[in-house]
UniProtKB/TrEMBL annotation:
<keyword id="KW-0227">DNA damage</keyword>
<dbReference type="GO" id="GO:0006281">
    <property type="term" value="P:DNA repair"/>
</dbReference>
<feature type="compositionally biased region" description="Low complexity">
    <location>
        <begin position="124"/>
        <end position="137"/>
    </location>
</feature>
<dbReference type="InterPro" id="IPR012340">
    <property type="entry name" value="NA-bd_OB-fold"/>
</dbReference>
<feature type="DNA-binding region">
    <location>
        <begin position="54"/>
        <end position="60"/>
    </location>
</feature>
<comment type="function">
    <text>Plays an important role in DNA replication, recombination and repair. Binds to ssDNA and to an array of partner proteins to recruit them to their sites of action during DNA metabolism.</text>
</comment>
<keyword id="KW-0238">DNA-binding</keyword>
<dbReference type="GO" id="GO:0009295">
    <property type="term" value="C:nucleoid"/>
</dbReference>
<feature type="region of interest" description="Disordered">
    <location>
        <begin position="116"/>
        <end position="154"/>
    </location>
</feature>
<dbReference type="GO" id="GO:0006310">
    <property type="term" value="P:DNA recombination"/>
</dbReference>
<protein>
    <recommendedName>
        <fullName>Single-stranded DNA-binding protein</fullName>
    </recommendedName>
</protein>
<keyword id="KW-0235">DNA replication</keyword>
<comment type="subunit">
    <text>Homotetramer.</text>
</comment>
<keyword id="KW-0234">DNA repair</keyword>
<feature type="short sequence motif" description="Important for interaction with partner proteins">
    <location>
        <begin position="149"/>
        <end position="154"/>
    </location>
</feature>
<dbReference type="InterPro" id="IPR000424">
    <property type="entry name" value="Primosome_PriB/ssb"/>
</dbReference>
<dbReference type="InterPro" id="IPR011344">
    <property type="entry name" value="ssDNA-bd"/>
</dbReference>
Length: 154
């Protein structure tokens, strides 16, 4: 359908360490849950309220999967861009179920680590973009972020 957009931008914290699997073709697949929160003051009582949403994120991009496996841990704050996909599956009881996920596809998407939970393990900020991201000029171009660290595998 022409003229439609399927893009998700989230900033949140990992709910647990990422789950790393390998597909039958040998590709790495990383999945994790991401919490985003809204806060506001209740007009009636004046007290502060908070609502947390949980998002299931799946990375099919090999380079971002490597970064996620190496640097993401429970509680880390990340910025990510992907798209929504809903898939159908059958549970153990034979009932059809649906799951909507934020997918970072093989040649699209973005993942940026925003905090420094483990100062010895990860640089201050890591950023990786998909291959066809016009803004960064491609995978190896430092134009988008001059602070890239050399020991990052991308």
């Amino acid at each position: 359908m022409a003229g439609s957009v399927n893009k998700v931008v989230l900033v949140g914290n990992l709910g647990k360490d990422p789950d790393v699997r390998t597909s039958q073709s040998g590709a790495k697949i990383v999945s994790f849950s991401l919490a985003t929160s809204d806060t506001w003051n209740d007009r009636a009582s004046g007290e502060k309220r908070e609502r947390t949403e949980w998002h299931r994120v799946v990375i099919f991009n090999e380079r971002l999967a490597d970064v996620a496996e190496r640097f993401l841990r429970k509680g880390r704050k990340v910025y990510l861009e992907g798209s929504l996909q809903t898939r159908k599956w059958t549970d153990q009881g034979g009932q059809e179920r649906y799951t909507t996920e934020v997918v970072i596809a093989a040649y699209r998407g973005e993942l940026v680590l925003l905090d420094n939970k483990d100062a010895g393990d990860a640089p201050r900020q890591q950023q990786s973009r998909g291959q066809n991201n016009q803004q960064s000029g491609g995978w190896d171009s430092p134009q988008g972020n001059p602070d890239l660290d050399d020991d990052i595998p991308f």
